[in-house]
Amino acid sequence: MAASPKVPSAAARTISTEIPSQANPFPPLHRGNPNTLQVNLGYRCNQSCSHCHVNAGPSRTEMMDADTLALIPAVLEARQISSLDLTGGAPELHPGFRALVHQARQLGVTVIDRCNLTVLSEPGQQDLAGFLASQGVTVVASLPCYSAANVDRQRGSGVFERSIDGLQRLNALGYGAEASGLELNLVYNPQGPSLPPPQATLEADYKRELAENFGIRFNRLYTIANMPIQRFAAVLHQTNQLESYQALLRAHHNPANLDQVMCRSTISVDWRGFLFDCDFNQMLGLAAGGGDPPRHLRTLLEHDPSGEPITVADHCFGCTAGAGSSCGGALS
Predict the structure, then answer these.
(1) Does the global pTM surpass 0.85?
(2) How many Å apart are CA 117 and CA 166, to the nearest integer?
(3) Number of H helices, E strands in the chain
(4) How far apart are CA 26 and CA 261, in angstroms?
(5) DSSP string of 67-124, one letter each residue
(6) What angle do CA 256, 259, 260 make, to 5 degrees?
(7) 3-state helix/strand/coil string of 155-205
(8) pLDDT at residue 17 in the model
């Protein structure tokens, strides 16, 4: 049996740059029946984006070990989870990524790859798009704008051109075509401290511009609000916009979105195998259910987390503000 992973000390956990909680705190929530296991395979990424709440980049070395990786298919079976959502960093850069995808698909589990598109043209990854297609993986690709200038400003010089190349590779394999069964969804994040525009309107704009200028097709556009944590929070703090952005999120809180927030149906797993209620709580070191130390993935082999309290804080208003925000886009 593998040794238990070391629980991070309080000093080693991520420090939030959120402003302190105010009156009218975020409402209490409880988990429903989980249908998605969202796994962060590590923080290594070939990009370093200004809005990244993970602080991922080329110099990060954190990566899930083989023993923890091997638990994932067993947990999917034990909890009868229907969807495996793989994220990072760039999850495709983990050496065990392809074997894990294959195992999950053999179980009949839907696999989602949170892809930054440029990884498809990284050295040694030229066959990655073909692999994703052969496994029927759903690709959720980040493209913050259909304008080259805006994308390169947020993600780095040349990223837009490589992203378009990645989309064209996926389209050539059938992604985005209704009859192919290969789903390609894009993700939009605002450039700064503002709420996303209406999702349906922006999706129509994306489809028109990408089709007319590049011949690209895709299925859905997800609009996701930027969370005031980590790298994005640091930028807001430096420009004296952190408090006003948090106030904006609180002012636009929509209680109707509470039933659909992603933490109700998703279990988040960090690269060490510890459990969190969402990817954002993971980055803040806020363990699932407020546990300290956090529970490990292996506990899900026997334990059903349905009905447990969800750890909430001020950043959660980012998921309920306006039309709402989740890993699947707007909620209403």
Answers:
(1) yes
(2) 5
(3) 10, 10
(4) 13
(5) HHHHHHHHHHHHTT--EEEEESS-GGGSTTHHHHHHHHHHTT-EEEEEE-SGGGGSTT
(6) 100
(7) HCCCHHHHHHHHHHHHHHCCCCCHHHCCCEEEEECCCCCCCCCCHHHHHHH
(8) 43
Backbone angles phi, psi at 236, to 5 degrees: -65, -40
Assess whether pLDDT exceeds 60 at residue 11: no
Residue 63 lies in a domain: yes
Task: List Cβ neighbours of 59 (8 Å cut-off, separation of 6 or more).
Answer: none
User: Domain containing 40 — which CATH number?
Assistant: 3.20.20.70
d(CA 294, CA 76): 20
Structural domain of 204: 28-226+261-311
- Classified as helix, coil or strand, 287 is strand
Neighbours of 158 (CB within 10 A): 12
- C-alpha to C-alpha distance for 89 and 39, rounded to whole angstroms: 11
pLDDT, tens digit (0-9, with 9 covering 90-100), for 42-75: 998 876 665 566 666 787 889 999 999 999 999 9
Beta-strand pair 266-269/275-276:
antiparallel
- Type of residue found at 53: H
Nearest Cα to 206, choosing from 252, 163, 154, 162?
Answer: 163
Do the domain assignments include residue 234? no
Average pLDDT score over residue span 121-135: 96
Instruction: Kindly state the tokens that stand for 29.
Output: 């929530």
Q: How many domains does the chain have?
A: 1
Q: Are 8 and 285 in contact (CB under 8 A)?
A: yes
pLDDT for the residue numbered 10 = 34
3-state helix, strand, coil in the chain (%, to 5): 40, 15, 45
The reply to whether 57 falls in a domain is yes
> Residue 120: which residues within 8 A CB-CB, separation 6 or more?
126, 128, 129, 165, 166, 169, 170
Q: Is residue 273, in this structure, part of any structural domain at all?
A: yes
Measured CA to CA, the distance from residue 301 to residue 79 in angstroms comes to 7
